[in-house]
Amino acid sequence: MGKGRGRRRGTSKWQQEHRPLSTGFLAPGGLSAGRVQRRDGEYHVRHISGAAAAKDYSCPGCGLTIGAGTDHVVAWRADSILGDEYAASERRHWHTHCWRIG
To answer: Which of 2, 8, 27, 99 could form a disulfide with 94 if both were Cys (CB 3.0 to 4.6 A apart)?
Structure first.
């Protein structure tokens, strides 16, 4: 483990203090591509290039796998009554086409 990570030798990660999710990417000028109004509310949307897509995800639109290396969209609620941190933790990866037609 690298220096400054807050973990001592022999300490389980389950015994460490909770670290809140960073919501810096929600700020204006962050990584969010913008806010989009849809039928069911407002969303933050981020476009992920194939080069930046390192993992497989399951698309909530069609239920199929978004393979690593595939361009896609990440979206999360911008109007969540539970706040931005909760909304960001519930973000979902979508095929670009599925997001467009959803």
So the answer is: 99
pLDDT tens across 31-43, in order?
A: 446 888 888 889 9
Please tell me the chain's helix, strand, coil percentages from 3-state DSSP, rounded to the nearest 5. Answer: 20, 25, 55
As given in the structure block, the two tokens for residue 25 are 């990417």
pTM: 0.65
Strands 34-38 and 72-77: unpaired
Q: Could you tell me if 89 and 72 are in contact, meaning their C-beta atoms sit under 8 angstroms apart?
A: no
The partner residues of 43 in beta bridges, in order of sequence, read 36, 77
d(CA 71, CA 65): 12
- The single residue listed with the structure tokens 């979508």 is 94
pLDDT (average), residues 73-79? 92
